[in-house]
């Protein structure tokens, strides 16, 4: 089961309800819950007190995404270099 980070500021009763809701609409591989948790973890990186802590959190986040096989976002088309028309 995916685990919500205790630092995510989600209260215990809310955490259980949240995970139950995610589980109810999730796929068999729990992709929805894992992606939601990754998004919350990413928020914590931006809230880090200093660059060193942010680097630690980023490494942990990247490892989590790789370990849980969260798909990469779709590639966006390259911007046009022809300028305005």
Task: Explain how this protein is built.
- By secondary structure, the chain is mainly α.
- It is 54% helix and 0% strand.
- The chain is built from 3 helices and no strands.
- The radius of gyration is 17 Å and the shape is extended.
- The mean pLDDT is 76.
Structure summary:
The protein has helices at 12-24, 31-46, 51-67. The chain is mostly helical and 85 residues long.
Question: What are the salient characteristics of this protein?
Answer:
54% helix; 85 residues; 3 helices; mainly alpha
Spatial gap, N to C terminus: 52 Å
Order of helices and strands: HHH
Contiguous low-pLDDT stretches (5 residues minimum) are none
| Number of distinct beta strands | 0
Q: What structural class do you assign from the helix and strand content?
A: mainly alpha
The tally of helices reads 3
Question: Cα-atom Rg, whole angstroms?
Answer: 17 Å
Mean pLDDT: 76
Write the layout of secondary structure elements.
Elements: H1 12-24, H2 31-46, H3 51-67
């Amino acid at each position: 089961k995916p685990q919500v980070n205790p630092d995510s500021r989600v209260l215990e009763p809310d955490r259980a309800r949240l995970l139950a809701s995610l589980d109810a609409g999730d796929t068999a591989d729990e992709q929805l819950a894992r992606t939601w948790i990754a998004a919350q973890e990413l928020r914590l990186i931006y809230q880090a007190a200093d660059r060193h802590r942010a680097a630690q959190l980023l490494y942990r986040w990247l490892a989590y995404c790789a370990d849980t096989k969260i798909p990469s976002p779709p590639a966006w088309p390259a911007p046009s270099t022809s300028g305005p028309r």
